[in-house]
């Protein structure tokens, strides 16, 4: 039955970021460097948290999961986009297109819930410091992590289930560098008004509700921090500023694209680049440059590595 619905269109054409040859060469160089930076930055966080024992805390357990999601989120479309800069015809198979949409919403939904879990962690650490390790126990951490992935899976599956029934008989041109849900829906050969409402209700509301929850939680935390001693509050503000920056960078583009997903703004393409490529690059930078514990741990690891080299000599 699926084959009958989709036999007319077996692949989609991606327009990419630009049709200019000179710009495509520039984009190839820029995004190649950015993608390598994403991998190296997030791997650095994974290695540092894994091998430095002082970072074996609930916050950094959640952080390494965020790094894993960011690496995969950046990898679902970026390598193909980089290769496509040298292709005249940028095509993607029907199943490849649906795989991109599925994994983008799976990872995006999971990251949203993981950021909520990180906000819960910061609330407990700052507002209930004496009970932090008791409350944020391994059982709760695993529960928060599994819940994040479960919400991401349900969120993505609920939309893909409806997408699988849509007939595509042409045109098959997607004005982006990857298959994004609002853009692909518009190519269907039937009225998709209800499906558009579903996207707004699902993706848009998930983004908006998570963002509002985070906004409220961080407001409560900041209010609590302001009534503390200066020495304790400076470290708390430093950690909070990193979290708030990450939340804003991730949610702002998502809300714009998925709360108003069927507008004609060309800005959507730029925002898609931002939250699928630049946010995974900025996350490790923010969590290392603005986090004294991580910087100290990296320095400690480098010193240990140098000492071990001297020992073997």
Automatic annotation (TrEMBL):
Entry annotated with the keyword Cell membrane: yes
GO function term, MF aspect, one: olfactory receptor activity
Locations listed in the record: Cell membrane; Membrane
Topology of this chain in the membrane: Multi-pass membrane protein
Residue span, G-protein coupled receptors family 1 profile domain: 41-287
Keyword field: Cell membrane, Disulfide bond, G-protein coupled receptor, Membrane, Olfaction, Receptor, Sensory transduction, Transducer, Transmembrane, Transmembrane helix
Principal location class: membrane
A cellular component term, taken from the record's GO annotations: plasma membrane
Protein name (Swiss-Prot/TrEMBL): Olfactory receptor
Organism of provenance: Sciurus carolinensis
């Amino acid at each position: 039955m699926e084959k009958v619905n989709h036999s007319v269109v077996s692949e989609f054409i991606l327009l990419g970021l630009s049709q200019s040859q000179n710009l495509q060469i520039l984009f190839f160089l820029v995004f190649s460097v950015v993608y390598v930076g994403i991998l190296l930055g997030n791997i650095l966080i994974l290695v540092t948290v894994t091998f430095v024992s002082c970072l074996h805390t609930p916050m950094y357990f959640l952080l390494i999961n965020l790094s894993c999601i960011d690496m995969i989120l950046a990898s679902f479309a970026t390598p193909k986009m980089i290769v496509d800069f040298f292709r005249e015809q940028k095509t993607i198979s029907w199943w490849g297109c649906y795989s991109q949409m599925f994994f983008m919403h799976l990872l995006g939904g999971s990251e949203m819930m993981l950021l909520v879990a990180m906000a819960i962690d910061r609330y407990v650490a700052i507002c209930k410091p004496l009970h932090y390790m008791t409350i944020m126990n391994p059982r709760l951490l695993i529960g928060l992590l599994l819940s994040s992935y479960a919400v991401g899976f349900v969120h993505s599956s609920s939309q893909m289930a409806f997408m699988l029934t849509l007939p595509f008989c042409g045109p098959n041109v997607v004005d982006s560098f990857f298959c994004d849900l609002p853009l692909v829906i518009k190519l269907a050969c039937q009225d998709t008004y209800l499906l558009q409402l579903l996207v707004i209700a699902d993706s848009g509301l998930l983004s908006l509700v998570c963002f509002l929850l985070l906004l409220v939680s961080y407001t409560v935390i900041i209010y609590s921090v302001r009534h503390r001693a200066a020495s304790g509050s400076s470290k708390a503000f430093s950690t909070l500023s990193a979290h708030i920056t990450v939340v804003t960078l991730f949610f702002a583009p998502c809300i714009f694209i998925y709360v108003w997903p069927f507008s004609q703004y060309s800005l959507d393409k730029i925002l898609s680049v931002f939250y699928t490529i630049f946010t995974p690059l900025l996350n490790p930078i923010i969590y290392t440059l603005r986090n004294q514990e991580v910087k100290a741990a990296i320095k400690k690891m480098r010193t240990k590595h140098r000492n071990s080299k001297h020992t073997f000599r």
